[in-house]
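Record 1 of the preview.
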Amino acid sequence: MNEEMNITQINETVQPLTDTQPGRKEAVASLVLGIVAMVLPIPVLDLVAGIVGIVLSCNAKKQGYKGGMEIAGLVCSIVGTVWAAVYTLFMLFLLPLIWFSINSMDTFL
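->
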C-alpha cells in the first residue's frame, strides 16, 4: 500500500515532456541551424543557415521561450555567419589579389 502511494506521488510530480512552451520549435531549429552554420564547409550555405538561425532565435524569444537553447542557437548562428562572411570575403577579394600579385612577379623575373 505504501509502495503504491509512492508511485502515485511520483506520477503526479513528474510531468510528461510536451511541446507546449511557445517558441520551443523555433529554438531547436535555431540551435540546429547554428551548429550547421559552424560545421558545414560551404560558406554560402553557412551564411544562409546562420541568418535563418538568427531569425528563428529572435522569433523564439518574441514568442516567449525561456531557455538556454534559444541563446545557444543565437550564439552559434552568429559565430557561423561571421565565419562564413569572413571566409567568403577572403575568397572573393584577397585570394585573387594574391594570385595576381604572384603572376605579376613572374613578368619582372
